[in-house]
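User: Okay, second chain of the day. Same drill as before: sequence in, structure tokens out.
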Amino acid sequence: LSNTARAFTMTVDPCGLREGCHYAEVCAYDSFDPSRGPVFRVPVTVISPRRLEGSLVKVEDNLRFQPGEIHRQFVVVPPSATWAEVSLHSLSTRTHRYILHAIYLQPGESYGKNEFYKFISLSPDAQRSTYGFQVQGG
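Assistant: Same drill. Structure tokens below.
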């Protein structure tokens, strides 16, 4: 590579990927000396979201968190949905603080416009806490 900018086109077809997060790298090698390893790498991350079926959808997960751990779920908002609710309760014997951060993406809009962000304290003796936020199906 010389000291000028170069461009190339790369297309990723995610159709065959299962639900979840996927990572790969496209590596470029010097054709005269490939043993030197990659000259550069292009990271590629594809997120294949969970698709929900039906008009009233309920997803249940039992999650166990370590301090500082982040858990992300990616879900396609069903076409007729206008509202989402997240219900939480603690199985711990101590009170813990969490952040519930939900975003849904709309083409041409800033993600901050469609964002729900809440600090939550879950105590062992409390009832289930439910948080609702507006969504737009698509």
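The chain has no helices and eight strands.

User: Thanks, on to the next one.
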